[in-house]
Amino acid sequence: MKEEAKSDSEKEQNISQVILADTPLEKPEDDRLGYAPFAKNLAKAICDVRTDSSLVFALYGDWGTGKTTCLNFVLHHIAQIPKAQRPVVVRFNPWWFSGHGELLTQFFSELRIALGKDEKLKKVARQLASFSDIISEVPVNFAGAFGKAIAWCLRRGSREKDAWEAREEIRKYLKNQDRRILIVIDDIDRLTANEARDLFKVIKAVADFPKCTYLLAFDKSVVVKALKETQGIPGEAYLEKIVQIPFELPIPDKTALRTWLFEQLNLIFVDTPEELANQIYFANVYWDGIDHFLNTVRNIKLLTNALIVTYPSVKGDVNSVDFIAIETLRLFVPAVYHLIRSNPDMFAGKIDAHGAAQYKKDSLKLFHEKWVEQLSENDREPVKKLLIRIFPQLDNVFGNTIHGDSEWRRQLRVCSQDIFPVYFRLAVPEGEMSHSELRATLALGGNSGAFGHKLLDLAQQHRPDGSTRVSAFLERMEDFTQKDIPKEQIPEILQALFDVGDKLLVLEDEGCGLFSWGNDIRIGRIMFQLLKRYDSQEERFKILQKVFRDGQAVSVIVGEVAVLGQQHGKYGAKEKEPEKECLVSLQHVGELEEIALQKIKDACEQGRLIGLPNLPSILYRWGDWEDKDSVRKWVEKIVETDEGLVSLLEGFLSRSYSQTITDRVGQYRWRLSPKALEPFVNPATIVDRCKKLIESPPNWLEGKKRTAVETFLKESELLAKGKNPDNIPDWEL
Question: Cα–Cα distance between 41 and 351 in angstroms, integer?
């Protein structure tokens, strides 16, 4: 436990080292985007200013592109210049005081504190204190207008110094001293429209002091819009009156951005299996759409930080490339993300290659064309290309390319209908088989005992829908039968299936309706897929001969021998397959039938045949492989006791599924046709015994046993009335 705790702690530490805080860089040597050379030149230009007039530099850049980082680099380079040649720096972030009506007061407070640290400027700092005291008494709604402030002060009566005299005294002192003052103001684009207007009025009207240089950083488009709203004039024209020297933030080096991104992704996905992180597939997905959204440092941080948090919960259960794409959509086009999550049928799966679902293609096209129209023109093509790449059925919707889906589930692609939900639940659904657990279970395949024990364990675990987890495992196992399971493990795996297979044939995993199946079918499919990896019928026969002889799953063995016979046209098969397509030869089938027959006889002698699943099928095959009289004699002996009679009926009890056209959900019905018993026992001879059992039920007659007797009597009564239960819909029984 201590080792596990230590491991978890180390993992948390690694994650914390990878998470990227949304904070600007401080030192130019950490520059990854090419800002440092620009910042150095800008710093030199600011320090080279020789005029006594106030100057306003502006650094324009979109939100999240790294303006604050660039400012930090500028100030770093200025700090390297000899003190006598560099300006006194004052940093002011108006956003810290946004919403408090304090911008004017706080601006002068920060200016006074910064100047007070310089011996030569302490006097002007004191004068600023007096000036700010006067200004601070101005009501908030007057804070941005110096003329109104003076008028208000005059109405208040005489003061030691009025605002005008204080301002002129400051201007005179600053003009006569040697050093310039650099006032750096960031995050202007985060202010409200009124606050942005007031700040610019402070800069232009109130603090237009000599030898003061302003360096402002903001998103120009945001500020222009805000100024237009408050001033009623074009914001661009307003800025031109304030800013004398504008600069555009350098466009980040896209190659550097990508390199940085890929370094972060390598850290996040370091332990991801290669088959879930195909480089070629990633390149296609990245260039089709992801790259479009990662054009700023902030966007890269958003994506990588999101992946650090979300990926661990689905690691090994999703395709990492698809997961990066889905997370990109979630962060930057959330409307599309929610559309995908809410409409899995419109994105996952495939369209019928033969046009049988042309109606589906038409409806899909209408659906997708509609939402694509709602996207901004800038995002439309990248999003469309990205979705076509990760959801191949859209390639058929927008074009005519048809894709197969044989590898989608195995590769844990989001386009697989089975895997799709995992991407949007950020965890493996309750009761499902995670990819890592699936791999771990398959790793037991080299030992039939261990593998069989694990299958029995899974059969005891239930999913939310009532089915067992072994059904989920057997379903997913088919994804690995073609090549992933080592060939030398195939005999061991088959041995396990034919050892414990009967115990896996549980009622909970029986399919509902015509288009579903139970675990016996799943086991058969796995057997066929694994044995097809052997080139000759003789090799396959040798394996089956051994696992059938050593196996204990009589019902599964009998069922699979019957299927092998049907390939050759036996047991009611309407046609037989070409010899080369058959898993084993007809002669091999005969030898396997003898093994299966012996298994039936052994079960008879051991007294366990009556309790086996699929009892009717076993009895029919027994009759085919030996003679029907032997079967009838066994049945006659069984029904001599009431317990034996009820056990026989229970073995013939089946469950059907029905749903009318008006039903929202279907329902199960128990069936027990007396005609199914006729080859083995005369149903009429046991009706009265069953009635007496129901009238005076013994203590052991309960649950499924009682259901079997009641169902038999109900269908016998219908036959007595001339009605054939097989021709009556389930919902009328």
Answer: 59
Q: Maximum CA pair distance of the chain?
A: 128
CA distances for 60 relative to 64, 66, 243, 246, 390, angstroms: 12, 10, 11, 7, 37
- Residue 657 structure tokens: 């599924």
Q: In the predicted model, is pLDDT for residue 150 greater than 50?
A: no
Lowest-confidence pick of 164-173, 238-247, 257-266, 320-329: 164-173
**Tokens representing residue 314 in the block:** 């689905």
Structure tokens at 660: 């009318």
Contacts of 559 (CB under 8 A, 6+ apart): 520, 524, 614, 617
User: How far is residue 218 from each of residues 47, 91, 167, measured CA to CA in Å?
Assistant: 21, 15, 28
Residue 187 has pLDDT above 90, yes or no: no
Q: What is the dihedral angle through the alpha carbons of 186, 192, 195, 197, rounded to the nearest 10 degrees?
A: 90
Q: How confident is the model at residue 551 (pLDDT cuts 50, 70, 90)?
A: very high
Round to whole Å and give the CA distance between 701 and 704.
9
State the DSSP string of 618-654. HHHHHHHHS-HHHHHHHHHHHTTSHHHHHHHHHHH-E
Residues whose CB is less than 8 angstroms from the CB of residue 706 and which lie 6 or more positions away in sequence, other chains included:
694, 697
Distance CA 628, CA 647 (A): 20
Rounded to the nearest integer, the mean pLDDT of the chain is 82
What residue type is 2 in one-letter code?
Answer: K
Q: Are 509 and 531 in contact (CB under 8 A)?
A: no
pLDDT value at position 436? Answer: 65
Over the Cα atoms of the chain, what is R_g?
Answer: 40
Phi and psi at 472, nearest 5°, equal: -65, -40
pLDDT at residue 241 tops 50? yes
d(CA 629, CA 621): 13
Question: What is the total residue count of the chain?
Answer: 733
Residue 393: in which H helix or E strand, if any? Answer: helix 393-398
User: Which of the four pLDDT bands, split at 50, 70 and 90, describes residue 11?
Assistant: very low
Count CA atoms closer than 13 A to 330's CA, side-chain side: 18
Name the band, by pLDDT with cuts 50, 70 and 90, for residue 130: low
Sequence-separated (6 or more) residues with CB below 8 Å from residue 288: 382, 385, 386, 388, 389
Lowest mean pLDDT among 161-175, 240-254, 562-576: 161-175
Neighbours of 475 (CB within 10 A): 18
Say whether pLDDT at 575 is over 80: yes
Please give the structure tokens belonging to residue 240: 């031109």
Q: What is the DSSP letter of 289?
A: I
DSSP code per residue over 219-233: -HHHHHHHHHHHHSS
Question: CB-based burial of residue 709 (10 Å sphere; 0-12 exposed, 13-18 middle, 19+ buried)?
Answer: buried
Task: Identify whether the C-beta of residue 201 lies closer than 8 Å to the C-beta of residue 43.
Answer: no
Q: Which two tokens stand for residue 432?
A: 């499902």
Classify residue 320 as exposed, middle or buried by CB count within 10 Å of its CB (0-12, 13-18, 19+): buried
- Rounded CA-CA distance 337/60 in Å is 32
Q: pTM here?
A: 0.60
Single-letter residue type at 635: V
Distance (Å, whole) CA 305 – CA 298: 10
Instruction: Report the C-alpha gap between 450 and 352 in whole angstroms.
Output: 41
Handedness of CA 596, 601, 603, 608 (dihedral sign): positive
Write the DSSP symbol of residue 141. G
Say how far apart CA 263 and CA 277 lie, in whole Å: 15
Range with the lowest mean pLDDT among 328-337, 351-360, 422-431? 351-360
Q: Residue 14 and residue 326: Cα distance in Å, rounded?
A: 24
